[in-house]
Design a protein that fits this description.
Radius of gyration: 20 Å
Shape: globular
Number of domains: 2
Distance between the termini: 20 Å
Structural class: alpha+beta
Largest sheet: 4 strands, antiparallel
Strand order of the largest sheet: 2-1-3-4
Low-confidence stretches: 56-76
């Protein structure tokens, strides 16, 4: 994973080697672009890294990345360290910069992430899911836990996966970071998302399916972009709606993969779930953290 300095002097990343190579090929970066590897402090030319030494001909003379159109700046600080934005403008910027979602690529990268981090992902997922299931089984409190804390649990788990996707150090405690990083917005998002989705399913079913898919990035936007819960819900809904059928296909395939883990061997779900979560996390990176244009 690398971070580069764009033509506007701003930092972009961390992104994968493949993404940087795509920028070089597209003329948005060159071998003289300053970059650093995740975990390292010193900046170097891209051409000094072995990963890019064999860049396409002409890359050295290609122009640097043009000035980006960053997501609109937060309008005001919110509760619990969150920020309030104009969801429509914020989402419009992300939609304009994101390319078509590649379902196959997301699943492939999710599988590769599991292969590269097998025991950490399987073990961490098992521990968090087990703790969540135990909490939800507590008499008289299970319903409240499901309504209020599901988002807090998943927010932490996605935070752990996001760090793995970005090549950053991640520990078991990061999977429970939802309780310390953004407890209130994750709790409110969990409550509202669950109520709205359930209401949609009870009324006409299809609205519930639409919302369930559209809100798939809510917890990631809260822990990563630090958005207030309603802003995160609206940004997720708008971004996903722009490519809803592709996202629906990814969620459906991810669900099928997870279910296969139950059918084959119950413990297998802790192998298939990481693939599905990894694929969703990569889709989030593609759609909610797209490269500058």
């Amino acid at each position: 994973m690398f971070t580069i300095i764009g033509g506007d002097g701003k930092e972009y990343g961390p992104v994968t080697v493949e993404q940087v190579q795509a920028w070089i090929t597209g003329g948005r970066a060159n071998l003289d672009t300053q970059a650093k590897r995740v975990g390292e402090a010193s900046w170097q030319r891209l051409g000094d890294f072995p990963e890019f030494a064999a860049a396409p001909a002409g890359a050295a003379s290609a122009p640097p990345p043009p000035a980006a159109t960053p997501a609109p700046a937060p309008a005001a600080s919110g509760a619990a360290g969150t920020v309030h934005v104009d969801p429509k403008a914020y989402a419009a910027d992300l939609i304009a910069r994101a390319g078509p979602l590649d379902i196959g690529s997301c699943l492939e990268r999710g599988w590769n992430l599991l292969k590269a981090n097998f025991w950490p992902l399987v073990g961490t997922t098992f521990v968090l899911v087990a703790v969540m299931m135990i909490a939800q089984s507590i008499p008289f409190l299970g319903l409240l836990v499901s309504l209020l804390l599901t988002g807090v649990f998943y927010g932490g788990l996605y935070f752990y996966y996001l760090k793995k996707v970005r090549g950053q150090p991640a520990e078991l405690g990061d999977a429970f970071a939802g309780f310390s990083l953004a407890f209130l917005p994750l709790m409110l998002a969990s409550l509202v998302v669950t109520l709205l989705t359930t209401l949609g399913l009870l009324l006409l079913i299809l609205p519930g399916i639409y919302l369930a898919v559209s809100y798939v990035f809510v917890y990631l936007l809260i822990v990563d972009h630090k958005l207030e819960f309603w802003c995160a819900m609206e940004v997720s809904r708008r971004v996903v709606t722009a490519q809803w059928w592709r996202m629906f296909g990814l969620v459906l395939l991810g669900t099928i993969i997870a279910v296969l883990g139950v059918i084959g061997l119950i413990i297998g779900i802790f192998i298939t779930i990481p693939i599905a979560i990894g694929a969703i996390t990569y889709a989030y990176e593609d759609l909610c953290n797209p490269p500058a244009k």
